[in-house]
Amino acid sequence: MITISLCMIVKDEEDTLPNCLDSIKDCVDEIVVVDTGSSDRTKEIAHQYTNHVHDFEWIDDFSAARNFSFKHATKDYILWLDADDILREEDRKKLINLKNKLDPSVNAVSMIYHYAFDEYGNVTLSFRRNRLVRRKAGFKWHDPVHEYIAVDGPIVHSDIVVTHKRIHHASGRNLAIYEKRLERGETFSARDLFYYANELRDHRQYEKAVDYYQKFLDREDGWVEDKISACDKLADCYYHLGETDRERETVFQSFLYDSPRAEFCCRLGYQFLNNQEYKKAAFWYELAASMEKPEKNMGFLLNDCWTWLPHLQLCICYYHLGEHKRAYEHNEVARKYRPNDRTILSNKEFFETNFPDDCR
């Protein structure tokens, strides 16, 4: 059996830290908490779970803080979580099973990250992250913000899910770090350009975001999944700027990096649906609905586009095309994913009342 050190960096997390540590404490052999300047009860709470609580003077560098936390780990493997992450019961069991069975030559284990949810608790955004790393491999964190850990060697892609339970809303801290770096004259890597553009978009600075997404996409380097994601986010910027043609061009640009993804098919479908071109819209939504979600993909996945959304939109398309039976069938598929959705239930009642013969 392998042993695990949990390493965390925290600041002002008194509202979330207990839930996180309660969900993981029985699965790990050591807990290391690094505080980066809390002014609440975070450190007091951490001391209730571990004696390994350390201070780190904040220098606008998340990687430096995470690397500092890793230096205090003593077990075979290091697991990292944020204070607003938890493991649900089924995932605790999976992690304990992994401890018992993991080949100690494995360098890293990726886990699924359920990052955002809709009002019904369905996952809307998920991706993979390398969560568990072999300590003696000496892997390091890189980049001051939107940091990542570089791993190589044998990697296991597990089905363990880390669930994000956000309480605090995002601040402008990350954007400020990037802009301080620009003021110092730092040269941004491809990854910096991508994540800086994301921050600009999140803060609705769409024109400036467009500029930095283009700079990123013009580079030869850069992870292909970030290129695909950049196309999606750039298209979203053009949508908000009212530049429909450029939005569509950016969608097609994404096809240069990989076969069409459901997110892009839904975006094209939405454009045609808004233009009342229902047959064209149905083509793209049908393509999205036919795709199988890639479970081992390390990039960002908008789960709505891979599950219920294309079916709900196909219900609208086929209704306007006079194909009521097909419209009802797609609405029923959407209902399997969102059984309490008011729109879907209203559609169901409408079809069963007005077209009962098509609902059998």
Describe the oligomeric state of these chains in a short phrase. single chain
- What is the total domain count? 3
Taking pLDDT < 50 over at least 5 consecutive residues as the criterion, the unreliable ranges are none
Largest sheet: 9 strands, mixed
Shape: globular
What distance separates the N and C termini? 55 Å
Tell me the series of helices and strands, N- to C-terminal: EHEHEHEEHEEEEEHHHHHHHEHHHH
How many extended strands?
A: 11
The value of Rg in angstroms is 23 Å
The CATH architecture category of the largest domain equals Alpha-Beta Complex
Q: What percent strand? A: 15-25%
The helical percent reads 40-55%
The named CATH superfamily of the largest domain? Spore Coat Polysaccharide Biosynthesis Protein SpsA, Chain A
Q: What is the CATH level 1 assignment of the largest domain?
A: Alpha Beta
CATH-defined topology of the largest domain: Spore Coat Polysaccharide Biosynthesis Protein SpsA, Chain A
Helix/strand structural class: alpha/beta
- Kindly report the average pLDDT value: 96
- What's the helix count? 15
